[in-house]
Amino acid sequence: xxxxxxxxxxxxxxxxxxxxxxxxxxxxxxxxxxxxxxxxxxxxxxxxxxxxxxxxxxxxxxxxxxxxxxxxxxxxxxxxxxxxxxxxxxxxxxxxxxxxxxxxxxxxxxxxxxxxxxxxxxxxxxxxxxxxxxxxxxxxxxxxxxxxxxxxxxxxxxxxxxxxxxxxxxxxxxxxxxxxxxxxxxxxxxxxxxxxxxxxxxxxxxxxxxxxxxxxxxxxxxxxxxxxxxxxxxxxxxxxxxxxxxxxxxxxxxxxxxxxxxxxxxxxxxxxxxxxxxxxxxxxxxxxxxxxxxxxxxxxxxxxxxxxxxxxxxxxxxxxxxxxxxxxxxxxxxxxxxxxxxxxxxxxxxxxxxxxxxxxxxxxxxxxxxxxxxxxxxxxxxxxxxxxxxxxxxxxxxxxxxxxxxxxxxxxxxxxxxxxxxxxxxxxxxxxxxxxxxxxxxxxxxxxxxxxxxxxxxxxxxxxxxxxxxxxxxxxxxxxxxxxxxxxxxxxxxxxxxxxxxxxxxxxxxxxxxxxxxxxxxxxxxxxxxxxxxxxxxxxxxxxxxx
Length: 547
Hints:
This protein is of the alpha/beta class and about 550 residues long.
């Protein structure tokens, strides 16, 4: 053999090149991406290392292990630490423990697994075409789908239907329903339960970086294959579009974070996604709070509308439904790792509070029609959002302003705490999470009224900057006015027409000013100090502000 061309710098390609060098075979390795490793890379994200493909190997093949030891030396360490596999929002211990597996399954699943394996005993043996059929035949469909197929797909980066039945090697040789039952009865771990594994200190990608360094100049990265010939005949090749120059007939505006796709690509543009995350912040996650979601190189504001757990705290792993303020093209973890990863940022302190990835599109764009309720000549009036402590005078000013607008024949609607909590939001309490949801609903209702030609006057405590900023984000810059109704806590307690600070405070545990903080708005468009201004004077200032 004179010379060989190796296409692809993944683990298989690099291993082939390494073997060729050892055997003094002349070769050239071509990789379309800028870096080698294929699906097996170590990525650095916010100071943390993440392995995208294989992340451990057991000492099953001594030659391979010794070779890697020779490359990495002291950087290859034997790890015998317990590991856990996330499945169906439950953590499965690794090495595999039969009792742990059984406890994570429903009775229905256990019966299905036993029946499927019983049927397999009496079925005729056949040559399996791919790993999925191999797994179904040997372990049953249920057990395979739960613990084998997904893990194997994640490891190799392709569907189990495209993988050879032998990709599992020896790690599944002794795994079957009988070994599981044996482990339950005599509590003895069989070979496939072994948990110690070798791991590079700087991540799994260190192996391939070391191989690349060993191969030297024999590797050509950023090399796109145009044509391949076999037996003097051209072989059809799917060109790698990651390194392709594209010339467009029309000029378009494109910025960082935008995606360019082919016409026939399976393209989904959505503002709602199901994600799996690990929460890293010390504070608990608040549903319906406005967060910043960072996807690859793009940041979009949004909120969490649904969680798989009642409480999401530090180190919690949870499934979330998120809704974004704009549509964005993202992909699923199994399809495109790069376009599936995300981080969640708390805008109040600019700290990253969670990491995760996309598991499902929740696109509702095709079923929702956005339009004005009616055409009308828009006036110079805005959505008036009055915020302040309870008893500061918000509702009193709103009612007086309404009488003024009525005389001017301007259609308006007053949204205050009493009428909204007795109707639309009567299902909400006074927890921090419920307060956020209360303000979110009020904000959207205000926008609907505004778009229909009705002037919304919102009189609500809305204690958090984030809730007020969310409401403002729904409107155009000149269509929203934040009005701070200022009064000291002492004065509010003295007024207290609803006895909120008195007897009711014993029932309501989150009275703003007493039990929970109020964020004084620093960006208010208008400040009304009701300790100094009368109701009439306050209304006149609003009218003057709007004119």
